[in-house]
Amino acid sequence: MKNLYESSDKFDKNAIESLGISELVLQENAARAVAQIIRQNLKPHSKILALCGKGNNASDAIAALRMLSGEYRCGLVLLEDNINQNAKIQLNIAKNVGVEILNLDLISDFNEFDCLVDGIFGSGFRGEMIPKIANIINLANAANCLKIAVDIPSGISQNAQVSKQVFKADFTICMGVLKLGLYSDKAKDFTGEISLANLGIDESKFSYGDCDYLLLLEDLELPSREVQNVNKGDFGHAFIACGDMGGAAKIAARAALKMGAGRVSIVNLTQNSINIDPQIMLKSSFDNADVVGFGMGLGGASLDFDKLKGLRCVVDADAFYKPWIRDFAMSKMVVLTPHPKEFSSLLMMCDMGEFDIDEIQNNRFELARKFSLKFPSTLVLKGANPIIAKDGRLYIASSGSSKLAVGGSGDALVGIIVAYLANGFTPLKAAINGVLAHQKSAQIYKGNSYSFTPNDIIEGLKWL
């Protein structure tokens, strides 16, 4: 895991005032990280243009050009007249070593440059940008060249709000700490490869206090079968509720079995016949269940939720539209796995307000955090970058891909998490590892992304 913070402002201030590191030293190290990425990706004498605002990220961009000047052809455009003092200092030095100050009106096409460096807003962006800057970003995004964002692509705020225009970077270089806003769903298509710049002091000395976490695939912990004197009962009996759409239950059941649940049974809540794999059992009740997964494909089927209270459960899909969902949200033994529309209903059912899908997506971190502070269940808010929320802390899993955007993918996720619970993992650890296993299964798939199916998720579990 890596630490995530909304902002590094207080850490910068602490480094300067308490640790005695000058602001110019911090900026030198920030600029060096930008220059290093350019050297790694561009041949000498390539043409570089920095788009500079008035803040410290502009200072970082200007200083990087100064380091590269001579080795590369470097120019910059000032988009603001009232640049701060640090930017003025860096600008004067850059001029002395041959960095050109260019007139934006005389640049007919950004395609004449091999690289564009975004030093416009950084983490200081708020609201919507003025038309002039929006137009510049649109032109920059249309250019066929390397694009690097300093700290945060312009158009993304530190609290994960995303503007209509966002600089689309190939690389984003975070200064000092990784920023939470880079890992929102709406930011995923604009950040490119994210790296962390060391500002001259180890991160453990630079940052402090509470944080959220970025989950890495290497954090994945698999169910253990190291002890040999065991039987199937040692790995739990997982039950899956089958509603009107029986395919969802079958996908979840197969995923649970493949992920290591000792036994898997389906309880058919309808009068419909259901054909199941021979290794999965058919039950008439939830008696003797260690873990239950339900909600996916439930439809109008009747579920006696009172019989599930007190059990470890993974709750999905149609269950979030039922008034009794609040009882499960109140259980620390439950994992909830809504997508944004379902989360909207869950919030309403739990008296947390009415939010449409856009509001959910624009405020994913805030709403997930608030929900997890009010309810003791573990929340998995699905999306491009799923959020696992527990007790006000967020765990962001950014390794997913568009392959997973297919019907039945969420059903497989339910089964995977169910299997982790059956193997004795806590709800939080089951949710974290379930999401990571789900994402890694997609990553190791070798076919075309459009051909990926839930069966491929399940098949991939054996190679994790």
Automatic annotation (TrEMBL):
Keywords of the record, alphabetical order, are: ATP-binding, Isomerase, Lyase, Metal-binding, Multifunctional enzyme, NAD, NADP, Nucleotide-binding, Potassium
Reaction(s) catalyzed by this protein?
A: (6R)-NADHX = (6S)-NADHX; (6S)-NADPHX + ADP = AMP + phosphate + NADPH + H(+); (6S)-NADHX + ADP = AMP + phosphate + NADH + H(+); (6R)-NADPHX = (6S)-NADPHX
Enzyme class (EC, first level): isomerase
A Pfam family annotated for this chain is YjeF_N
* YjeF C-terminal domain location: 215-464
Judging by the UniProt lineage, the source's domain of life is Bacteria
Cite the EC number. Answer: 5.1.99.6
Record-linked InterPro entries = CARKD, Nnr, Ribokinase-like, YjeF_N_dom, YjeF_N_dom_sf
| Residue ranges annotated for the YjeF N-terminal domain, each copy included | 8-207
Q: Which cofactor does it need?
A: K(+)
Binding-site positions, K(+): N57, D118, S154
Q: Which SUPFAM superfamilies match?
A: Ribokinase-like (SSF53613), YjeF N-terminal domain-like (SSF64153)
- Quote the record's cofactor note: Binds 1 potassium ion per subunit.
Binding positions for (6S)-NADPHX per the UniProt entry: G122, S123, G124, F125, R126, G127, E128, D151
* Family note: In the N-terminal section; belongs to the NnrE/AIBP family. In the C-terminal section; belongs to the NnrD/CARKD family.
Summarizing the function annotation, the protein's role is: Catalyzes the epimerization of the S- and R-forms of NAD(P)HX, a damaged form of NAD(P)H that is a result of enzymatic or heat-dependent hydration. This is a prerequisite for the S-specific NAD(P)H-hydrate dehydratase to allow the repair of both epimers of NAD(P)HX. Bifunctional enzyme that catalyzes the epimerization of the S- and R-forms of NAD(P)HX and the dehydration of the S-form of NAD(P)HX at the expense of ADP, which is converted to AMP. This allows the repair of both epimers of NAD(P)HX, a damaged form of NAD(P)H that is a result of enzymatic or heat-dependent hydration.
What's the protein name?
Answer: NAD(P)H-hydrate epimerase
Q: Which gene encodes it?
A: nnrE
